[in-house]
Design brief:
five-stranded mixed sheet, 1316 residues
Length: 1316
């Protein structure tokens, strides 16, 4: 089923890849709020949407059929699985991407002799379903098509060299999945990927590096534009487009003419221009450049096939170019990646090839494209698919163009429009994008905190624009908005709104709605009332009065800071969305009071509450209202019971529907309300009309009500805001800490996932200090770990602010020195307590002292430490203490810093103290397109392989005299270690509502046991995600993840494995190779592989995930118990009982440390550990551990609990076994031959690892969907182990559906439900 569906959808995005899916529901709350039902650690599944919400998705079930395309050359025809909803241009893309038809790029398709329009749906082609055959006809070239053909051919034949791209960075979009060392089928029984794995070993950065690959086979020596290009006038008139120069592997040089009819070899030489065709025996002309190269070079076809085979060694997803998202750049880069730079003349010619001589082809009217796309119809499913697909593609292209321009602005490469203004006030236009700095250049935020407030406002604004885009309100438009942090500067890129620069007539305001100049002048254009009212209703903003400087009252639908502009194109634009929620007045009064000195006050007043908090508070109030109404109904005797039941049901359902929209800034509750009100009509409408919630965003911002009535209303609004602030500090934050302590939610892996969890609940990052404070002086290990994460995140964030301040006024050529010096002052003080900045004095003299700020030279470890401590006190109101860097967490802190500021450092084991090993550069790559996987992922111990690598590559590392010169003491970081700084991007692209509806509808159908319909909807969601986002996109990675678990539940295990692997690769390439979601995707893939019986591969993926976890978190993550447990189960499945017992012991060790020795969790693991000991022939120890388990269950749950009874049963069984084995020992000791047999049998215990207990890296608490994450699901009494075979004992302990004993008892793995 899944395979057929994949075939059906494989061409939806112009690729031959099977269909894919979205991981909305990464477990433990680390991806999105949606979960999949097979997750551990208390991740709650999101409620399904109400009936009817998935109808659109259900209607979009596609009519799939096989389409035959007739070709003019061999192989004569090709077949493609298509759907009737696909556009013809999708089929074109499939043809272009298919290996057999690579050569075609300039063609059209015909059906029954009629040319087919590329931009229509296949269903619009007459009789296409009856006669599914299209004919490919070659078209004449235009110059633009010829240029794109040359660019494409160079990429296909491997002739294009590496590109230097400021947007992506070095090795961006790398995937490691294909390089994980999987055991071969021929590997022996003992060849276990995690054998001898040292859980205590420190993290090795080689985990993040790619294994070297052989260089790809060459097809030509070079192909570029000729020196004779462009054609002269008279030859242009004859159809000449370009002149190319090609050098074959045989060493022959050919000059090629690109003509409207195709390509042919001409008679030109280096010295003589002769465009006449040259005659060759093998042929000298072809429509495609690839075909021509095959004619003029005998070795081309063979070498091209070898290149395709070489590329085919990797998963296609790992090599496809990212088009709809910015690839993730790794923070550690192999030095060899920087040494791949090759001579390529055409690299300098690519701007011309891509954009033409005058660059006019890339200049786009971004704003018009955005708004015209928004105005597309959305009545039918097909309309919505086309609209959302175009929207996603447009946002991706705009984001890339805007980021590229922002980088050039930050580097000083773009001239400002107002060069006489101060630098922070300068504005720029590049590529039709308007740029400004995220600083208070004109004094707008002078009273709110200046530059600090302006920086925060820009970040809030882009999030506000994203929320409005998601709401998709008719008649309301937003400019394309991107915020880029690069080299210490924050740059805002916006599409140019028509009329924003227009000088208005005297008496007219520049803005048509909202505050014009701060709050002094207020405009209120009537045409904005309706769309703003709709927007405010969705965002829970109350209609309220504001007063201008003259005391005149204005009724506004939105915040006075939110502005409306009537563009010259007649559209209504909403601007400045940084204040859609009120200020956190409790924080301001406490930490930015008028009685505090400037150096003690919080840096700015832009402390707005998060929309998630407002929505959470609204839901709480709604529940209270519903509870009160139900109470009234039950007490009332006036209404009939039936009517009361209808009203109650309607209210409850409505409450549920409102709760579902909690994380989606939509106005869906009104629709849900209507749906629920219809059955109960009058009663429901009356009841729900009594509840309304909205909040005034302008309270506590300087407004002065005039009349008593206005003042009373204002005081009421202020009280509501204070109640929300109190709800945050008294309920939400303690609830978050409590849930993390109890394990009700997944424990965050790093600072990024911690802040993401906070934001989901509406907690701002400024409350990190409160979270750390609530964990201090607590014995609970989970709270201690949470406090350490909060400490690390606070240090990272204040270091980011400090580093940005130092970089802001520096020319880019000094950034390496600045970054390395600041990192030395933070992380390298043990190696060198007085590091000196290594500045090139000659370069320094080139810049006037007034234009650059080299104050970073004066920074010392002491001054940096004092400043960071002061900033933490100032920004988070928390005293962090003496140690900023936690011992053993240097790598984790360095990673967080690099990811937040965009550093790409050389991959090496940095020497942070005199005791640590000397620095050696790690080099893994042999080619720029190699895939990265640490050598330690295979069956070799990490420590050994690490040493071998360093020894092997020592000679390749360049001699860095400056790193440790005879005249200066060594430092941890050197300027040469800083390879690059990539921009950090915040963008405003909306998610696809249609694709998510299909996914939710599929889930709901499966929950209702409508499996066939559910599978169709899941496939539909898969297709929609791929069509709308493209295959390589974070949302698609999340859907792959989600569908892999859903398909597993449908017993489509092979499809589940395939989707899980796709989730890994796409996550790696779009989110990062060590992102927390990527690690979870690896663990999910591991469980899926185990479920299909491929336990060795599963263990290899588990090992890689653990290696990554050591880098992200370090050892002993509170949630790592289940992952280690799963590894132990897999080892048991492979009959590696001794190794399994060691992993169970490691899991138990962490559980005792985290949960306590008397907890139910510990009892459960003791239960499993005892079984593992029994299998490893340690009967006496097994009895002791089972007795401990029984005692805890008996004490905590009582003797009648199923867990207690199960433990008692096993205890008796093990006692019988121990007695039986003791008798056997006595008999054996009296018989010499039996003694030798006994030693052979029990000799395993002599090989038990005697080192310290395994210390587990971070692993999210993710249970196997198989239910096998904890063995011992069934049990029955048995007389003793000596009476059963080994296989029977294993089945007995693991549990088996086929051999379930008649007497069944509940397994302690269900202890949480039972205890509840």
């Amino acid at each position: 089923m899944a395979e057929n569906g994949n075939d059906a959808l494989k061409t939806s995005n112009g690729t031959q890849e099977p269909a894919d899916s979205k991981a909305d529901n990464i477990p433990n709350g680390h991806a999105t709020s949606e979960t999949n039902g097979t997750q551990a650690n208390g991740a709650a599944s999101e409620e399904p949407k109400q009936d009817g919400e998935g109808d659109d998705a259900a209607q979009a079930a596609e009519n799939v059929f096989k389409l035959v395309v007739k070709l003019p050359h061999s192989p004569g025809q090709t077949e493609i699985m298509v759907s009737s909803q696909e556009q013809v241009q999708d089929i074109r893309q499939s043809i272009v991407d298919t290996p057999d038809t690579f050569q075609y790029s300039c063609f059209h398709l015909e059906h029954n002799g009629q040319r087919v329009n590329d931009f229509v749906e296949l269903s619009e082609v007459k009789d296409i379903a009856k006669e599914p055959t299209l004919v490919l006809r070659k078209d004449p070239y235009t110059e633009a098509q010829a240029r794109m053909h040359v660019v494409r051919v160079r990429e296909l034949i491997g002739a294009s060299g590496d590109r230097v791209d400021f947007v992506s960075g070095i090795d961006a979009g790398t995937s490691l999945c294909d390089s994980v060392e999987l055991p071969s089928d021929k590997s022996g029984k003992e060849d276990i990927p995690i054998a001898h794995y040292d859980l205590n070993a420190p993290a090795s950065v080689s985990t993040l590096l790619a294994k070297s690959r052989d260089a790809p086979p060459k097809t030509v020596k070079g192909i570029s534009l000729s020196a004779w290009n462009p054609p002269p006038y008279h030859l242009r008139m004859r159809g000449h487009l370009l002149y190319l120069e090609a050098k074959t592997l045989e060493g022959d040089q050919f000059y090629i003419t690109s003509h409207v009819s195709g390509f042919y070899v001409n008679k030109s030489t280096n010295q003589k221009f002769d465009p006449a065709p040259r005659t060759l025996e093998s042929g000298s002309s072809a429509h495609s450049l690839i075909a021509l190269l095959g004619k003029i070079s005998k070795s081309f076809d063979a070498s091209f096939r070898k290149l395709q085979e070489y590329n085919g060694q990797r998963d296609p997803l790992a090599s496809y170019q990212l088009s709809n998202s910015i690839p993730a750049a790794p923070w550690l880069v192999s030095q060899s990646s920087t040494q791949q730079h090759q001579a390529d003349l055409t690299r300098t010619q690519e701007p011309y090839l891509l954009a033409g001589a005058d660059n006019a082809e890339t200049l786009r009217d971004w704003n018009e494209e955005f708004q015209s796309t928004r105005e597309l119809p959305k009545e039918t499913v097909q309309d919505r698919v086309f609209r959302e697909r175009l929207t996603s593609k447009l946002f991706a292209e705009y984001n890339e163009a805007a980021v590229r321009g922002a980088v050039l602005v930050a580097r000083g490469e773009v001239q400002p429009l107002n060069p006489t203004e101060a630098k922070d006030a300068q504005i720029f236009v590049y590529n039709n994008v308007f740029y400004s700095f995220g600083a208070d250049g004109v004094g707008t935020f002078a009273s709110d905190g200046g530059d600090e407030a302006a920086r925060v406002a820009t970040g809030k604004d882009v999030q506000g624009v994203k929320n409005v885009n998601q709401l998709d309100i008719n008649g309301l438009f937003t400019p394309g908005t991107v915020v880029v942090d690069y080299l210490g500067k924050r740059i805002v890129g916006q599409s140019i709104v028509p009329g924003i620069f227009k000088q208005r007539d005297p008496g007219e305001n520049q803005i048509d709605y909202g505050g014009v100049e701060g709050k002094d002048v207020i405009a209120s254009h009537e045409s904005f009332v309706q769309p703003f009212a709709e927007l405010s209703k969705a965002m829970r903003v109350k209609k309220h009065a504001v007063w201008d400087k003259e005391g005149k009252k204005h009724e506004l639908e939105a915040s006075v800071e939110t502005k409306g502009l009537l563009g010259t194109d007649g559209r209504k634009y909403v601007l400045d969305l940084y204040r859609v929620t009120p200020l956190d007045v409790a924080w301001l009064e406490k930490h930015r009071g008028d009685d505090q000195t400037e150096d003690k006050r919080y840096p700015h007043r832009m402390t707005v509450l998060r929309p998630e908090l407002v929505e959470s508070y609204r839901i709480m109030k709604l529940r209270e209202y519903i509870a009160e109404e139900l109470k009234k109904k039950s007490a009332s005797k006036e209404q009939a019971e039936a009517g009361a039941e209808k009203i109650t049901n309607g209210e409850a359902s409505n409450g549920e529907s409102k709760e579902q929209s909690e994380t989606q800034m939509t106005n869906g509750d009104s629709d849900a309300k209507k749906d629920e009100e219809e059955p109960a009509k009058q009663p429901d409408a009356v009841d729900m009309s009594g509840f309304s919630f909205s909040i005034n965003p302008d309270v506590f911002s300087g407004q002065q009500p005039e009349t008593d009535e206005e003042k009373a209303e204002w005081e009421k609004d202020e009280a509501e805001v204070r109640a929300v602030c109190e709800y945050l500090t008294d309920k939400v934050i303690p609830g978050l800490v409590h849930d993390m302590k109890e394990g009700d939610v997944g424990f965050p892996m790093d600072g990024q996932s911690l802040v993401r969890d906070m934001h989901k609940r509406g907690v701002n990052a400024r409350y990190l200090g409160d979270i750390a404070r609530s964990c201090s002086k607590k014995e609970d290990k989970r709270l201690q770990a949470l406090q350490q994460l909060a400490h690390q995140e606070m240090v990272t964030r204040v270091f980011k602010h400090f580093c940005n301040k130092q970089l802001r006024q520096l020319p880019p050529c000094f950034s390496q020195t600045c970054v390395s010096h600041l990192l030395n002052c933070l992380l390298g003080t043990e190696l060198n307590s007085k590091p000196q900045a290594d500045i090139d004095e000659e370069l320094k003299d080139m810049y006037p002292a007034t234009e650059i700020d080299l104050s970073f030279e004066k920074v010392t470890p002491e001054s940096l430490k004092a400043e960071l401590q002061r900033q933490i006190e100032l920004r988070y109101r928390y005293e962090i203490g003496i140690e900023l860097v936690q011992a053993g967490k240097e790598t984790q802190l360095l990673r967080e810093i690099c990811l937040k500021i965009g550093f790409q450092l050389e991959a090496k084991e940095y020497q942070v103290s005199k005791d640590s090993k000397p620095q050696q550069s790690l080099q893994e790559k042999a080619s720029s397109d190699s895939l990265a996987v640490p050598q330690t992922n295979g069956v070799h111990p990490p420590s050994e392989s690490g040493k071998k690598k360093k020894k092997k590559h020592a000679d390749h590392s360049p001699n860095r005299a400056a790193t440790a010169s005879p005249t200066s003491p060594p430092t941890t970081f050197h300027p040469d270690n800083v390879f690059n700084i990539v921009p950090i991007v915040k963008e405003a692209s909306p998610r696809s509502v249609l694709a998510e509806e299909a996914l939710d509808a599929g889930r709901m159908s499966i929950q209702q046991d409508q499996k066939e319909l559910g599978q169709e909807l899941l496939l539909e969601s898969l297709s929609l995600h791929e069509q709308i986002y493209g295959i390589l996109h974070p949302e698609v990675a999340r859907v792959y993840y989600a569908l892999s678990t859903l398909y597993y539940g449908l017993d489509e295990k092979n499809a589940a494995v395939e989707l899980a692997k796709k989730a890994v690769i796409v996550s790696e390439r779009t989110l990062g190779i060590d992102n927390s979601e990527t690690i979870l995707a690896y663990l999910n893939l591991s469980l899926m592989e185990h479920a299909t019986g491929n336990s060795r591969a599963a263990l290899a993926y588990t090992r890689h995930a653990l290696d990554l976890w050591k880098i992200v978190y370090g050892p002993r993550h509170p949630d790592s118990i289940t992952t280690i447990n799963n590894a132990a189960v897999m080892l048991q499945h492979l009959k590696q009982f001794h190794e399994s017992r060691i992993w169970f012991e490691a899991s138990l060790d962490i559980c005792e440390d985290v949960a306590g020795k008397q907890s139910i969790n510990t009892a459960t693991l003791l239960f499993q550990y005892a079984q593992a000991l029994a299998l490893d022939h340690e009967s006496k120890e097994a009895v002791n551990k089972m007795k401990e388990s029984y005692n805890i269950f008996n004490e905590k749950l009582g003797p009648q609990n199923q867990n207690t009874k199960e433990a008692e049963t096993w205890l008796e069984t093990l006692l019988h076994s121990a007695v039986s084995q003791a008798r056997q020992q006595q008999a054996a000791s009296a018989m010499l031959q039996n003694r030798r047999l006994y030693l052979n049998k029990n000799g395993r215990t002599q090989r038990m690892a005697t080192g310290s207990r395994p210390q587990t890296p971070a692993a999210m608490n993710e249970q196997a969907p198989t239910g096998s994450s904890m063995p011992g699901q069934t049990s029955s009494r048995m007389g003793g182990l000596d009476k059963r075979s080994l296989d029977e004992i294993v089945k007995y302990i693991e549990g088996s559906k086929q051999t379930t004993p008649k007497k069944k008892t509940a397994n302690p793995k269900r202890r949480q439900q039972a205890a509840a």
